[in-house]
Amino acid sequence: MGKLRPDKRPFQLSTTEGNNMSTSTPVKQIELNDLDLTQLAEVKKQLEEELAHLTTSFEQLKQAQARFQDCIDSVKTIKGGNEILVPLTQSLYVSGELVDTDKVIVDVGTGYYVEKNSDDAISFYTDKVEFVKKNVETLRQTIVTKQNNLKSTIDIMQYKISQGTASTSLQSK
Amino acid sequence: MEARLEALTNEYQKLQKDLSNAIESRQRLDSQLQENEVVQKEFKLLKDDATIYKLIGPVLVKQDKIEATSNVDKRLEYIKSEIKRVENQLADLSEKTEKKKLEVIEFQRTYQAQIQKTSSS
Q1: Domain boundaries, chain A
Q2: Which is deepest, A10, A22, A74, A102, by most CB within 10 Å?
Q3: Which residues of B touch A8 (CB under 8 A)?
Q4: Which of A112, A120, A130 to mutate to test the interface with B (most CBs of B within 10 A)?
Q5: Quick one: pLDDT at residue A31?
């Protein structure tokens, strides 16, 4: 069942991140300068949460990509030879021989598995890797914009704080 | 008066919880939709005599391409209708939450006014 996961996660993440983008960016751009410190702190907190969420998504996508790459490598390896060690438990193996190295069964998602020859399997996984790569790229861009947003929020906060202390010190004089 | 306020806040909190539940299921449906669409696309690329297995519990069971395809199509349809349903639910809930919020604020104001009146008199 664990195999199903790399399929599921990237899609889910790409959609949630799309939602975040549409709801939060316009609000910030319009009002940042007019907000007072507490509101800015609120925005900052929200941005930080989003960033944390996006960064974990990014990691997961990277992992998914690596997993698909592993699949490609495995298919290539079994083509090379037909001797294999079969794990019976984690510490016990028997040697075996692959009868048919050109036929593999590929998990295409939602519980369906398709029999493919190794070339088809490799191209299937290559497509997956490309797909995930594209998602990683868009996600990376979102993260960069979020980071910029966070930075400008912090800048404005610092500016306001320095202004605030300046005016109070003026008043105290 | 206090009990009334508490009841109102409870109702509001319950609505908020429902709303976040609805959002969650909307997101889950979305990921299911995406996954099924990928499978559908993959099936279209397959030859008609391709061997397809379906995972049922821990076993892989062989299945016709036609059967598997219609199965996925049906699932997609179901998911799409579910998304529509949840979407309506979402709109309904956010409207209700907004209304309840105003109600709570309004009530708090009258409550506060009441307290001031009693304390000043």
Answers
A1: 4-10+39-164
A2: A10
A3: 31, 35
A4: A112
A5: 61
Q: How far is the C-alpha of B103 from the C-alpha of B97, rounded, in Å?
A: 10
A15 touches chain B (CB under 8 A): yes
| Contacts by A87-93, CB closer than 8 A, 24 or more apart | none
Geometric angle at alpha carbon A106, from A105 and A111, rounded to 5°: 105
Give the best residue of B55, B63, B67, B76 to mutate against chain A (max A CB count within 10 A). B55
Q: Is the pLDDT of residue A10 over 70?
A: no
User: How high is the mean pLDDT of chain B?
Assistant: 92
Instruction: Give me the CATH code for the A4-10+39-164 domain, please.
Output: 1.10.287.370
Amino acid at B17: K
Q: Which of A81, A72, A22, A20 is nearest to A48 (CA)?
A: A20
Does the pLDDT at position A9 exceed 60?
Answer: no
Counting beta carbons within 10 angstroms of the beta carbon of residue B69, is it exposed (0 to 12), middle (13 to 18) or buried (19 or more)? middle
Question: Of B36, B46, B60, which has the smallest distance from its Cβ to A110's Cβ?
Answer: B36
Instruction: Please tell me the distance from the alpha carbon of residue A8 to that of residue A107, in angstroms, as a whole number.
Output: 12
A21-30, A62-71, B97-106: least confidently modelled range: A21-30
Q: What are chain B's domains?
A: 2-116 (1.10.287.370)
Which helix (H) or strand (E) segment is A59 a member of? helix A37-80
Judged by CB atoms closer than 8 Å, whether chains meet at B35 and A8 is answered as: yes
Q: Can you tell me which residue has the tokens 């048919």?
A: A100
pLDDT band at B101 (very low <50, low <70, confident <90, very high): very high
pLDDT, tens digit (0-9, with 9 covering 90-100), for A105-116: 999 988 999 999
